[in-house]
Amino acid sequence: MSIFFHGTPTVLYHVTPKVRLPRIRREGLKPHVPGKVWGKANPNMTNGKRVVWLTADPTEWMHSAHHLKGWRNRNTTLLAVTVSWRDERLHHYLSWRGDKKCKEIDPWNCPNRMLAWFVYRGTIRAEQIVFP
Predict the structure, then answer these.
(1) 91: domain range?
(2) In 9-116, which ranges are E strands?
(3) Mean pLDDT of 63-82
(4) Environment class of residue 54 by beta-carbon count within 10 Å: exposed (0-12), middle (13-18) or buried (19+)?
(5) 3-class DSSP assignment, residue 10
(6) Is 4 among the domain residues?
């Protein structure tokens, strides 16, 4: 696999249900507005903007706060995604949000390692993804 980047590449991670892997292999990771998910994620988290959620912390993808952690262990997979730090579509979540409500959240005590969250405002090509 040959990937050419402008700038320094890095590896971030994305969690997805295994049933979505065939489509992701064909089309890549497409941005979407988050839906209401077990009280943690909702459309307000991105101000209604379409994003691909990424994390820098691969150990947190099966975090204990998830109400269906058994489901996540069996039916989801962790994808490594190569992106460039200089890509204008890549944003650290807390910096990108930058609003007062977001600043009131205590990221050090967030069960989901919010400090490790990134959003990507575009499609991540399949060539940038390491599949299991």
Answers:
(1) 9-130
(2) 9-17, 52-55, 76-84, 90-92
(3) 67
(4) buried
(5) strand
(6) no
The pLDDT value given to residue 8:
66
Tell me whether residue 3 is in a domain. no
Over range 6-21, report the average pLDDT: 83
84, β-bridge pairs: 9
Residue 125 in any domain: the answer is yes
The amino acid that residue 83 corresponds to is V
**Farthest CA pair distance, the chain:** 42
Query: C-alpha dihedral over 17, 2, 118, 63, to 10 degrees?
Result: 40
Overall domain count for the chain: 1
Give pLDDT tens digits for 78-126: 899 999 989 999 998 888 877 655 555 555 555 556 778 899 999 999 9
Distance CA 63, CA 59 (A): 8
Which strands sit side by side in the sheet containing 52-55, from one edge to the other? 90-92, 117-120, 52-55, 9-17, 76-84, 129-130
